[in-house]
Backbone:
């Protein structure tokens, strides 16, 4: 009787352990990570992919600048912005590489000092040549001035954080200054004033970015120098600082 009772208890114990899966004897099951994997381009394709980014974004940008209809122009601006965003998300560059960190005091000081001196020099030259300052008393308005400062920072993001960093990857740091500045200048065709100034200014902006790696002081001086051009150059040459088909249709 005792043996039978002991056997019954032992069998019941085994059944309970089997049904409840005793954790002391079963290895834990790993839980798969739900974090999305980072998109990566194979190293063998990296150079070709960088070329593709440059060509596609520049073509889309030119398409926007030369669209004859406002709706078409706005559509291509949106397409360009989305394309840039997608490429940045795929690349996932660091904030340091994109120049989105705050600048050093020395770097910001150099950029601001040279730009202020350039603005003053340009004004003195115009006055010495007999030009009027402001050259266009009714333009730009305060509203357009504030818009242009924001637009200048966006342009520097495109020029430095997108185009320069990819040119740097393809051609090296020093050559990228010339390539990116040339692309920046050709985007301002057919305006002779803006194309000339943006080539010279683009070389300076890209070199400062290469050395000090921050778009914020460069964006500020871009806006300041652009407004200096607007108040020293007659609108008969500037055409309200338009480029592309807008310059021709002014």
Residues:
């Amino acid at each position: 009787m005792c043996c039978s009772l002991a056997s019954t208890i032992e069998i019941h114990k085994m059944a309970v352990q089997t049904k409840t899966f005793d954790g002391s004897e079963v290895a834990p099951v790993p839980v798969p990570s739900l974090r999305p994997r980072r998109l990566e381009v194979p190293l063998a394709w990296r150079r070709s992919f960088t070329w593709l980014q440059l060509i596609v974004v520049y073509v889309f940008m030119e398409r926007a600048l030369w669209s004859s209809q406002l709706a078409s122009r706005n559509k291509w601006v949106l397409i360009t912005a989305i394309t840039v965003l997608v490429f940045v998300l795929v690349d996932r560059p660091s904030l340091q590489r994109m120049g989105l960190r705050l600048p050093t005091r020395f770097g910001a000081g150099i950029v601001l000092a040279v730009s202020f001196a350039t603005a003053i020099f340009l004004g003195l030259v115009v006055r010495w040549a007999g030009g009027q300052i402001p050259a266009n008393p009714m333009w730009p308005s305060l509203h357009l001035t504030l818009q242009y400062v924001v637009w200048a920072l966006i342009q520097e993001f495109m020029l430095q954080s997108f185009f320069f960093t990819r040119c740097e990857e393809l051609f090296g740091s020093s050559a990228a200054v010339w390539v990116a500045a040339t692309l920046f200048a050709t985007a301002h065709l057919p305006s002779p004033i803006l194309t000339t100034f943006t080539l010279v200014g683009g070389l300076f902006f890209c070199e400062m970015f290469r050395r000090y790696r921050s778009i914020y002081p460069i964006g500020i001086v871009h806006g300041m120098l652009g407004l200096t051009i607007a108040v020293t150059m007659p609108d008969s040459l500037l055409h309200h600082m338009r480029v592309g088909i807008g310059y021709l249709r002014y």
